[in-house]
Every structure is written in structure tokens, then in C-alpha cells.
């Protein structure tokens, strides 16, 4: 039997990708499209930076509304720098990864104070700003300033590992992927090339069922030639997420106000508002209600973080008492303006939807739930 001749693949040409991008670039509220960029329209670094921070660990679909709301409220960097931090945190609520919001505010202040309101245009200076790491610095340098920076995100990793059939699993493959991306990047139009790679990964070279027949590099892709494109990038198996448990206490005043407190700045959900509760641990910690009351169970709420899955038991009670130190009563009609992360909004919603009649005077006391409120 005669062995079949090996398949010869063409080298991926950046010009083919840029030509595809010129025709098919997504219209995004933070982007200067290639036709406008070709006639001299310059991207606004503030919009590029804001979008890149929001897009970290978040989808384009989820970001669009937040981006437009931020711009409507704080149209210039100086406006954001001067805004109260609580307002910024409240506007960010629901986007997740809340350290980004704290760093966003700190970065705006630093650029306003130390750089005259103008972002620096090189990667090293950008990386010195709060919340800007290697990827974000490269993206801002390339997209906002057309600097020759190599931008490698999840889309780029997927494209490059398929083009070259990179067998090394992620995250170990990251240095190899960077070298291959550097070799692929053209000397001109670095900003458009970076965005073209993002668009190719988001619309054509997708994680599942990639539309290889529409790809400008279909004749250069080793994985497509072998019919194994969906198996890249290779990934090291992740350990199963551990489960943590805790109790959240939703105290509701007779006028509908809800008791809230502020989480510490450092740590998970840092600086955000929350209802009082226990620590989160592998074994449910002992009860620790914030005020003496007739606490009753209102169900459970589950939420998955990057490194663990959380199961919260929700306890609720009707309470008319001064707020403990460090806490405050948030009016019912003002909850939407509080910096409540999605987990806490789900927790409050569970309590509000399950408000039954308070236990009668003959109800048996419940152990570990605090002392009954005196009349």
C-alpha cells in the first residue's frame, strides 16, 4: 500500500485576516471600525481602557449595557476619577470580579493626577497603573495607540493552537503560544490585527462547531486538516471545585428597609455591600445573627466562584432596631442603587419572596438563632 502524501499547509498570511476583518469587523460601542480608522479616526484611549477592563472574564454581550451606562454617567476619565467610589461600585454591581471596579477607580485617579488625564502609550507605563496587567497593557497599546504589541487572550490561544496543532496543554502552552503569535503579527496595523484575532475567535474559530469554511486561514490550519479542531486548545484537567457553606441573614425592617454592611476591601467581593452572614467554610459555621430576632429559614442560594461553589442558607426576620456598628438600613426603594453583587441580590430576593407570617407567641424557640426581640 502506498502511503498518502503529507498535507502541505500554506503559512497563515496576516493580510488575509486583515482583509477579512475589513469586511466583517463587529460593530462595538468602544471600537473604531477599520474603514474609519483607515481615514484617520483615532480611538479614544479612555473607551478602549474601560472596555478592556470590563471584558476581563466577561462576555461582550454582558458588557455592552454596562459600558454604555458608564459612559453616559462618566463620559470622560476625569469624571470617573472624581466620582464617589461607592457610586462606581454600585454601577459595576452584576459584572463580577469586583476588584476590577476598585482598580478601575484607582486607575482613573492615577491617570488624572499623574498623567494629566492622558493614558501613557507604551506597555511598560500602562502596566504600572492599577488593574492593568500584561494582556490589558498590550491591548490598550495596540488598539488605542497602534503600538506593535502582541495581544494574547483566550480567542488568540484557541486560534493559534489550532493553526499549529499545539499539543502542549494550557496553561503550560502559554509561552509557546506567545512565540507563535509574535511570529504571526504583521508590522503594520497592530490594533486592527489584535481586534481581527478577537473577532475571528468570537465569530468563526469558536470553541465548539467552528465555522472553518468561512475562515480566512482555513488552508493554513493544521487542526482543520486533521479534523481535530474542536480538541484544541489542549487543557490540563481542572480539579473539582470544592464546596463552601454559610448562612446569610436578611433582616427586614417594618418599612421594608434591608440591613446591609460593607465587605472588607481586600478579598472576594471586596468593597461591595452584603447582608450580614457567617464565614464561608467547608463545614457550615455556627449561627451568628446580626441582631436578636425570630429568624426563620427562607431557602438556599447557590453561586459558583472561580475557585469554589458556595451554598448559602438564607435566614430572614422582621427587625425594628438600630443598625449594628458598621451596618446600615438600606431603604427598599434604594436597593437598586446599592453596590450589591449578584450573589447578594439573589439572597435578598430569596428572603423577600419567602416572607411568611412571623412566628406566633406560642412558637417554640429556635436554637442558635439569636434571642427573640423584646416587645
From TrEMBL:
Cofactor(s) annotated in UniProt: [4Fe-4S] cluster
Annotated region (Disordered), positions in chain: 350-375
Keyword Nuclease on entry: no
Enzyme class: hydrolase
SMART domains: ENDO3c, FES
GO BP field: base-excision repair; mismatch repair; regulation of DNA-templated transcription
Name of the protein: Adenine DNA glycosylase
Organism of origin: Oharaeibacter diazotrophicus
